[in-house]
């Protein structure tokens, strides 16, 4: 009897159709690698490590730059993180269709991620600079672009996971749990490194724009090298050529942007601040820009893109802030904030001041206030007065360590309360500490934000000051609101024995109190550290 011969099985044409390609055997011997399996797995996991670090840098860069440009870091971080996590899930689902071509798909995803993520900071800054965020038809341009970049980066990061899972299984099949554990371990450790590298290496040494562009270049090189080097045989000749050309194009774009980044920043600053920019620096706290101030031109100080002080109208603000609080005993004065020296200037004009402590967070602003010829002339060299002592540290922490009953006047010249970094400086706990350092009969004055345009913010500040045990007297100067406070009901007037202000009178103070009272929003609860109540 002659046995019939079974027909030969068809020749596998794709790695998933080869023996072991579906998990039937522990290894896929048909997949030719230029290195041993163990080395190949190590290289894939190393690629996962680097790509995860780059992905987290893109994420942190979007949060940081959005916070610098648009303020309210809690809102910006929430938008970026929630949109990005959502997009990662969508990207993972979409990448299932690419798993049959995992190597080519991963190479394309990394090239796109490097381009989008690397250029995201420059794109966001450009839209903010040339369209602005202060009104008009393009007022929401930066916010829309922030969501768009978060969505695109999240989609591409999410697409990495299933493709990498397929690639690592092609090298050596193992149980799904073990492969996921290896992949996520490399991913999370890479995220840790990227998260630490961004604030401690990239931001201080390279800056937002250059650091993100170089991160994109690293992402391109690692992703392209992994696919073209390790999985070269998995690609057709045409796919290899296209992937190589696309990676070179991405590198050319990112490299050109690095070379032009200084010119771009200058052009963007001129678009934002005009052509009269004299000083532009990024301190450890914020971006500081000085415009004008020489040859009779008005001086403006911008912090993170917002006007902090201008020589044309700062006197109206600082006299309204300081003079009512200086009515009464004032030998010892504490100025919280005011690193520009302008509030200290008004305090020092009063006779009988023996000591002024200025506590400001940003040492860069203090240096400018002392050394810049225009700004130091505007503040009358107040910070160099022998009666003035300057501390550059966190205001809240400094106040916790201050001795009780040490000051007769406390002047709070701080950023607006809606800024997340300043919210704790407008809390009930903060004003409780301020009350502790005030001597009996001492007075506190607080810059409480706009009265007309944001009355809820203003009256929340007033409610919070009252909750700390003060009696309050709110008043305004234009749209700028202030709260004068003491243990007993304070009197809103000028000291008849004090210096004569140039922009404030008893009548204007009384009118400011009436104007503020007309905007009152009753029943607002105080803001605390655990329950901040200032919203944009």
UniProtKB/TrEMBL annotation:
<keyword id="KW-0808">Transferase</keyword>
<protein>
    <recommendedName>
        <fullName>Polyamine aminopropyltransferase</fullName>
        <ecNumber>2.5.1.16</ecNumber>
    </recommendedName>
</protein>
<keyword id="KW-0745">Spermidine biosynthesis</keyword>
<feature type="transmembrane region" description="Helical">
    <location>
        <begin position="143"/>
        <end position="168"/>
    </location>
</feature>
<feature type="transmembrane region" description="Helical">
    <location>
        <begin position="242"/>
        <end position="261"/>
    </location>
</feature>
<feature type="transmembrane region" description="Helical">
    <location>
        <begin position="74"/>
        <end position="95"/>
    </location>
</feature>
<comment type="pathway">
    <text>Amine and polyamine biosynthesis; spermidine biosynthesis; spermidine from putrescine: step 1/1.</text>
</comment>
<keyword id="KW-1003">Cell membrane</keyword>
<comment type="function">
    <text>Catalyzes the irreversible transfer of a propylamine group from the amino donor S-adenosylmethioninamine (decarboxy-AdoMet) to putrescine (1,4-diaminobutane) to yield spermidine.</text>
</comment>
<comment type="similarity">
    <text>Belongs to the spermidine/spermine synthase family.</text>
</comment>
<keyword id="KW-0812">Transmembrane</keyword>
<dbReference type="Pfam" id="PF01564">
    <property type="entry name" value="Spermine_synth"/>
</dbReference>
<dbReference type="InterPro" id="IPR029063">
    <property type="entry name" value="SAM-dependent_MTases_sf"/>
</dbReference>
<dbReference type="GO" id="GO:0004766">
    <property type="term" value="F:spermidine synthase activity"/>
</dbReference>
<dbReference type="InterPro" id="IPR001045">
    <property type="entry name" value="Spermi_synthase"/>
</dbReference>
<feature type="binding site">
    <location>
        <position position="286"/>
    </location>
    <ligand>
        <name>S-methyl-5'-thioadenosine</name>
    </ligand>
</feature>
<keyword id="KW-0472">Membrane</keyword>
<keyword id="KW-1133">Transmembrane helix</keyword>
<feature type="transmembrane region" description="Helical">
    <location>
        <begin position="107"/>
        <end position="131"/>
    </location>
</feature>
<comment type="subunit">
    <text>Homodimer or homotetramer.</text>
</comment>
<feature type="binding site">
    <location>
        <position position="318"/>
    </location>
    <ligand>
        <name>spermidine</name>
    </ligand>
</feature>
<feature type="active site" description="Proton acceptor">
    <location>
        <position position="413"/>
    </location>
</feature>
<dbReference type="InterPro" id="IPR030373">
    <property type="entry name" value="PABS_CS"/>
</dbReference>
<dbReference type="InterPro" id="IPR030374">
    <property type="entry name" value="PABS"/>
</dbReference>
<feature type="transmembrane region" description="Helical">
    <location>
        <begin position="209"/>
        <end position="230"/>
    </location>
</feature>
<feature type="transmembrane region" description="Helical">
    <location>
        <begin position="42"/>
        <end position="68"/>
    </location>
</feature>
<feature type="binding site">
    <location>
        <begin position="394"/>
        <end position="395"/>
    </location>
    <ligand>
        <name>S-methyl-5'-thioadenosine</name>
    </ligand>
</feature>
<feature type="region of interest" description="Disordered">
    <location>
        <begin position="1"/>
        <end position="30"/>
    </location>
</feature>
<keyword id="KW-0620">Polyamine biosynthesis</keyword>
<feature type="binding site">
    <location>
        <position position="340"/>
    </location>
    <ligand>
        <name>spermidine</name>
    </ligand>
</feature>
<dbReference type="InterPro" id="IPR036259">
    <property type="entry name" value="MFS_trans_sf"/>
</dbReference>
<feature type="transmembrane region" description="Helical">
    <location>
        <begin position="180"/>
        <end position="203"/>
    </location>
</feature>
<feature type="domain" description="PABS">
    <location>
        <begin position="257"/>
        <end position="497"/>
    </location>
</feature>
């Amino acid at each position: 009897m002659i046995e019939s011969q079974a027909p030969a099985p068809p020749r596998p044409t794709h790695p998933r159709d080869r023996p072991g390609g579906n998990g039937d055997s522990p290894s896929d011997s048909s997949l030719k690698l230029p290195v041993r399996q163990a080395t190949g797995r190590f290289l894939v996991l190393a690629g996962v490590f680097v790509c995860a670090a780059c992905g987290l840098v893109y994420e942190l860069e979007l949060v940081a730059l959005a916070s610098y440009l648009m303020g309210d870091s809690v809102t910006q971080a929430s938008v970026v993180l929630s949109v990005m996590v959502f997009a990662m899930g969508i990207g993972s689902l979409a990448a299932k269709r690419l798993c049959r071509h995992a190597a080519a798909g991963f190479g394309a995803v990394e090239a796109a991620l490097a381009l989008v993520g690397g250029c995201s900071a420059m794109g966001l800054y450009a839209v903010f600079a040339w369209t602005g965020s202060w009104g008009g038809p393009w007022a929401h341009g930066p916010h829309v672009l922030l969501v768009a970049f978060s969505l695109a980066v999240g989609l591409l990061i999410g697409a990495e996971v299933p493709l990498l899972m397929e690639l690592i299984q092609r090298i050596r099949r193992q149980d799904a749990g073990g492969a996921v554990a290896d992949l996520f371990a490399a991913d999370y450790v890479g995220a840790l490194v990227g998260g630490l590298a961004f604030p401690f290496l990239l931001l201080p040494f390279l800056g937002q724009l250059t650091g993100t562009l170089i991160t994109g270049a690293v992402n391109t090189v690692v992703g392209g090298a992994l696919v073209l080097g390790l999985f070269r045989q998995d690609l057709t000749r045409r796919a290899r050529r296209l992937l190589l050309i696309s990676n070179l194009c991405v590198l050319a774009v990112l490299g050109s942007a690095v070379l032009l980044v200084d010119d771009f920043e200058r052009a963007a600053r001129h678009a934002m601040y005009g052509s009269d920019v004299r000083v532009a620096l990024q301190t450890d706290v914020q971006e500081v820009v000085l415009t004008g101030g020489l040859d009779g031109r008005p001086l403006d100080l911008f912090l993170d893109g917002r006007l902090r002080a201008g020589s044309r109208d700062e006197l109206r603000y600082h006299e309204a802030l300081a003079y009512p609080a200086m009515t009464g005993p004032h030998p010892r004065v504490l100025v919280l904030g005011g690193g520009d020296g302008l509030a200290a200037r008004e305090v020092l004009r009063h006779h009988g001041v023996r000591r002024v402590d200025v506590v400001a967070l940003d040492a860069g602003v203090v240096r400018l206030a002392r050394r810049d010829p225009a700004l130091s002339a505007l503040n009358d060299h107040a910070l160099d007065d022998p009666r003035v002592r300057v501390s550059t540290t966190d205001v809240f922490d400094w106040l916790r360590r201050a001795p009780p009953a040490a000051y007769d006047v406390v002047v709070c010249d701080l950023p607006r309360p809606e800024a997340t970094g300043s919210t704790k400086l407008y809390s009930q706990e903060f004003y409780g500490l301020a009350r502790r350092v005030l001597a009996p009969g001492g007075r506190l004055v607080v810059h409480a934000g706009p009265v007309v345009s944001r009355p809820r913010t203003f009256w929340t500040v007033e409610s919070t000051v009252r909750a700390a045990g003060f009696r309050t007297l709110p008043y305004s100067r234009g749209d700028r609101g202030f709260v004068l406070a003491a243990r007993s009901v304070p009197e809103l007037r000028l000291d008849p024995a004090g210096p004569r202000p140039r922009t404030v009178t008893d009548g204007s103070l009384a009118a400011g109190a009436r104007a503020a009272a007309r905007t009152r929003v009753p029943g607002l609860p105080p803001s605390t550290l655990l329950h901040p109540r200032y919203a944009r």
